[in-house]
Amino acid sequence: MTTFIIGIIILIVGGYLYGSYCEKVFGPDDRETPAVTKADGVDFVAMKKWKNSLINLLNIAGTGPVLGPIQGILFGPVAFITIPLGCVLAGSMHDYFSGMISMRNGGAQMPKLIKKHLGGKVFGVYNIIIWILMLLVGVVFVYTPGDLIVSELLKQEAVAANPTTWIVYAGIFLYYVVATIFPIDAIIGRVYPIFGAALIISAVGIFAGIMFGGGQYLQNLSFNGMFSQHPGGLPFIPTFFITVACGILSGFHATQNTLIARTVSSEKEGKTTFFNMMLVEGFIAMCWAGGAMVLFGKGTDMATGATLMVGLVSREFLGNVGALFAILGVIVLPITSGDTAFRGLRLMVAEQFNIDQGPAAKRVSLSIAFFIPAAVILYIAKTNPAGFSILWRYFAFTNQFVATFALATISIYLYINGKNYLVSLIPGTFYMFITLSFILNAKIGFNLDTLLGLPAGSYTASYILAAVLSVGYIWFVKQRATKQKDQILQNVLS
Description:
Strand content: under 5%
Order of helices and strands: HHHHHHHHHHHHHHHHHH
Mean pLDDT: 91
Structural class: mainly alpha
CATH topology: Amino acid/polyamine transporter I
CATH class: Mainly Alpha
Largest sheet: none
Number of strands: 0
Number of domains: 1
CATH architecture: Up-down Bundle
């Protein structure tokens, strides 16, 4: 249990210290925020710090910090160190700067920031990838809550052969369609903070259960075989980071942080609202990872699906009643996030192609255009024995690849303003290597090493090419940053 405790200390103490350093690097001041200067009573509305923080946490937390860590703990106790380190150095930093830079740019959303700092060509690529991400987020947030409803609430097998599974999926899709016409999310929005609180409280309950009863089942880190404990033989790099995904870093968060940037009334609240809320998500991730390891230590089959593990872990540590509220939280929150994802995708595409979204018929027709491929992806994933694993890895890869664009934007902003840009450039380069080496090697990607005839499980060619492209990432960021800084100086002098 020692490794688990060390990880919690890294998360809390390291998060506090590094959060303070990031705050010092950015330099928040007393200038008026967009919530004040652009107040419109709709999008730009000044709200209290506690409310902004809670809303942001509920926006970014769903099944991500639950399902990812449950699968990630299969890599062994090294997860208890890498999750908090990654959360502090990458995830929380990413969330803080994306929110703060948005505030300094009038509450601009991430696509606009990408276009401003990375250029039109990169913006075009980013647009396509973010559309794919939003689609995959929507699919994942039909699949996972749907399976939990069937297995945990209806007490049936959430398998493709069970008609109830498809009826539940259809019901969630129907909610997404209807939500494009009516603000149903406003109704759910009144109650889902309760379920958000349930998600946090359940994590605390799991933590208490680990500390006062389950600790003996937690393995401690050993240098012998540190990175080779996955039962399927999957390599730690890059697969662990792709698997854990949102529990460490999420590109999706930047789309949510920039929304909250329009409601923060003081820049000095940013550390709590952005940085610390990702730390809370990291804590949730640690608790579910620890809970899963306890059950695996007690004999639970390590091949048990992640969604089934949610119910098992909940009942183990929270009892039947507590488990019910925890499971409801894990169900409701992704559904509300899935609604946001599809709604965001609709608005992005409509804006790109100048499609009027005033008439309800046009909103519905455009939404259905997304729901059709989403339903196809869902069907393929559900009817494939390894479907969820494949779907999750596509989602996780896209999610973290998107984050490298935000991290590049942050690096350029900091460089232009004479600040320490390495805080974002190093994690951005690392995740560029992670995401590229994964997709280059994966069967669901380019399958590079196999095509080159290299031994099974080899990542040699993928690592080399990913490393070269990651150096190119550094060069591009530095080149763009230098060019923009020079242009600013010329404008000042002219």
